[in-house]
């Protein structure tokens, strides 16, 4: 399991050791302004700013006791490992925390720049959240599962609205129009919901404008 890690430990020996070894185990060390999956914090002081952005493992001082550990957990850390620590144990703890916080692959539908977490119904475009109504969400999810495929209107009406008999209805077109607008307002640089005239709709990727 590869992951991007932020290492905030200021203690030179520990930091140097981890910088040498973690990349060999498939981890990428990134700067504070980068995107990271987990934080290795040097101590309980100063990790508060990270707990809202990623899970935190505290590498506690050798003299830390149970009170220090309880204090760290109450402040939001996900795991605590006192020094001196075994490196392989640290690696396994990183994997364990990531397994807990990462959604299963089946729970995530990605059709860049769109990312959908089906457990939480969280929809993002290039990392920016999009608030969708229920049927807008179901329409986007249907399109995103097979990006670039053209779904006929009959297929979408049956899949999203459970329509069995097709008459004249603007339901699909109106929802597609609102969905397209919301994705654009969230920062999509192209019209992601493409109307294939006379057939239906498809979800386009982030293709360069022509």
Summarize the structure.
With 210 residues, the chain is α/β, with parallel strands linked by helices. It has two domains: 100 residues, Response regulator (Rossmann fold), CATH 3.40.50.2300; 97 residues, Arc Repressor Mutant, subunit A (Orthogonal Bundle), CATH 1.10.10.10.
Task: Output the keywords.
33% helix, single chain, elongated, Rossmann fold, 210 residues, 2 domains, 5-stranded parallel sheet, alpha/beta
Summarize the structure in words.
By secondary structure, the chain is α/β, with parallel strands linked by helices. The protein folds into two domains: 100 residues, Rossmann fold (3-Layer(aba) Sandwich), CATH 3.40.50.2300; 97 residues, Orthogonal Bundle (Arc Repressor Mutant, subunit A), CATH 1.10.10.10. 33% of the residues lie in helices and 22% in strands. The chain has six helices and twelve strands. The protein has a five-stranded parallel beta sheet with strand order 2-1-3-4-5, with helices on both faces. Helix 4 crosses helix 5. The protein is elongated and about 70 Å long. 26% of the residues are buried.
Based on the coordinates given, report the CATH architecture of the largest domain: 3-Layer(aba) Sandwich
Enumerate the spans where pLDDT stays under 50 for 5 or more consecutive residues: none
Count of individual helical segments:
6
Order of helices and strands: EHEEEHEHEEEEHEHHEE
The CATH superfamily title of the largest domain: Response regulator
Percent of residues in β-strands: 15-25%
Shape: elongated
Q: Describe the main β-sheet briefly.
A: 5 strands, parallel
Question: What do we call the CATH topology of the largest domain?
Answer: Rossmann fold
The tally of beta strands, per DSSP, is 12
Task: Give me the secondary-structure category.
Answer: alpha/beta
Number of domains as seen in the coordinates: 2
State the helical fraction. Answer: 25-40%
What is the CA-CA span between the terminal residues? 38 Å
């Amino acid at each position: 399991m590869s992951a991007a890690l932020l290492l905030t430990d200021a203690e030179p020996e520990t930091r140097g050791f981890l910088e040498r070894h973690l990349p060999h185990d498939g981890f990428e060390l990134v700067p504070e302004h980068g995107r990271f999956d987990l934080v290795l914090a040097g101590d309980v002081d100063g990790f508060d700013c990270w707990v809202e952005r990623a899970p935190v493992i505290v590498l506690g001082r050798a003299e830390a006791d149970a009170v220090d550990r309880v204090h760290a957990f109450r402040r939001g850390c996900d795991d605590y490992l006192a020094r001196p620590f075994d490196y392989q144990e640290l690696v396994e703890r990183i994997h364990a925390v990531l397994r807990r916080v990462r959604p299963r692959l089946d729970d995530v539908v990605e059709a860049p720049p769109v990312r959908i977490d089906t457990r939480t119904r969280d929809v993002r475009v290039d990392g920016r959240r999009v608030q969708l109504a229920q049927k807008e969400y179901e329409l986007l999810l249907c399109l995103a599962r097979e990006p670039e495929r053209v779904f006929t209107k009959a297929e979408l009406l049956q899949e999203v609205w459970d329509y069995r008999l097709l008459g004249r209805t603007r339901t699909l077109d109106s929802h597609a129009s609102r969905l397209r607008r919301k994705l654009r307002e969230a920062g999509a640089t192209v019209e992601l919901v493409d109307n294939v005239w006379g057939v239906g709709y498809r979800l386009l990727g982030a293709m360069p404008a022509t």
